[in-house]
Amino acid sequence: MKQLFIFPLCVGLIAGLLCTLSCNSCQSTRPIAVSEPYRQISPDFNADSAYRFVERQVAFGPRVPVSTAHSECGDYLTAKLAEFGAQMVEQHADVTHYDGKNLPIRNIIGRYNPDNKKRILLYAHWDSRPFADQETGEERQRQPIAGADDGASGVGVLLEIARQLQQQPVTMGVDIIFFDLEDWGQPSSDTRQVEGDWWCVGSRYWSEYPHVEHYKASYGILLDMVGGSNATFRKEGYSMQYAPHVVEKIWSRAAKLGYGNYFLPQSGGYITDDHLPVIKQQRAPSANIINLKSDTPTGFAPHWHTLRDDMRNIDRNTLKAVGQTVMEVIYTENSTPT
Ligand code: AHN
Ligand code: ZN
């Protein structure tokens, strides 16, 4: 009789032990504290495609207002955004630049889901600087730059994002603006005391006279010099001052995607750029993604405003890091209800 009691007890003990063992082995595969790889939400940004968009702009020649290259490239950009399904608006205006001359400007605006109140604004400048004033030698300083990085890179990344928005649409509103005449600030070689600030003329015009009355976006992202090899994006001063939450969104997504080597957790200098008028006129709190260096005299990459700012500097890896990060911000936002 005794054995009859002991037997089930033994079976119970063994079963219990087995269960504990197997549960332990279950636990080791349970994804609790173990860090899971981040799953990308956005479609793949195609860096080859972005590269070709940069190359195409540069092939027109320096996009200096008023030149054939400028007007032909403007037509190309409008046609491309339209081809990628954006509803187009162009702004034409006459402005005065620092030398007192009148210049026509052309801001190119592509709208996705124009009726949605919730909007994100993405922008870059499409003009190129008429003088390579960071060059050595007066003759060289008078020549216009190719602007592969300074101008064309940001526009190229945004064209690729537009192409992706057509293939995998979002419900949220997205505006892409290519601003004209960002880069005609007084050259350092011109020592005259000219009153005023002459950068960012196109974005200043738009910020004062937006394409839609009372235009407002939830936030904005400026892409400026986002194609250089070994680019480093430091947290630009005005962006941190006026839009730290936007900086945080971008830098944290970049880190999740593994681009922490481009988007450094460091502060950079204060840069007068297209985001300033946009911020000041309260069109959108904006962050500037801009290649800032801690080891160059200018604070920018060595090719900045020189004749070396051509396709040799453009690195697909940088375009990819920026493009994928911005897309991740957009597509994450789109899946988050407000
Ligand atoms: C200043 O040098 C004050 N701003 C530079 C903004 C810029 C020029 N971005 C590209 N080109
Ligand atoms: Zn420039």
Can you walk through the features of this model?
With 338 residues, the chain is an alpha/beta fold. It has a single domain, classed as Aminopeptidase. Helices cover 40% and strands 16% of the residues. It contains 10 helices and 8 strands. The chain has helices at 2-29, 47-59, 68-83, 138-141, 148-167, 201-208, 237-242, 244-257, 275-280, 316-334; strands at 87-96, 102-112, 119-125, 173-179, 219-224, 233-235, 263-267, 286-290. The protein has a 6-stranded mixed β-sheet with strand order 1-2-4-3-5-8, sandwiched between helices. A two-stranded parallel sheet has the order 6-7. Helix 2 (47-59) crosses helix 10. The radius of gyration is 26 Å and the shape is globular. The N and C termini lie far apart (71 Å). Mean pLDDT is 91; it is low at 1-6, 8-13 and 15-27. It binds N-[2-(1H-imidazol-4-yl)ethyl]acetamide and zinc ion.
Describe this structure in a few short sentences:
It is built from 10 helices and 8 strands.
Supply the key terms.
Aminopeptidase; alpha/beta; 338 residues; 6-stranded mixed β-sheet; binds N-[2-(1H-imidazol-4-yl)ethyl]acetamide; 10 helices; binds zinc ion; 16% strand
What is the CATH superfamily label? Zn peptidases
Strand content: 15-25%
Helix share bin: 25-40%
Number of strands: 8
Q: What structural category arises from helix and sheet content?
A: alpha/beta
**Nearest-integer average pLDDT:** 91
What fold name stands as the CATH topology? Aminopeptidase
Sequence of strands across the biggest β-sheet: 1-2-4-3-5-8
Q: Helix count?
A: 10
What is the CATH class designation?
A: Alpha Beta
The total tally of domains equals 1
User: SSE order, as H and E?
Assistant: HHHEEEHHEHEEHHEHEH
What's the gyration radius in Å? Answer: 26 Å
Taking the sheet with the most strands, its summary is: 6 strands, mixed
Spatial gap, N to C terminus: 71 Å
The appropriate CATH architecture is 3-Layer(aba) Sandwich
Shape: globular
What is bound: which ligands? N-[2-(1H-imidazol-4-yl)ethyl]acetamide, zinc ion
Query: Uncertain runs with pLDDT below 50, 5 residues or more?
Result: 1-6, 8-13, 15-27
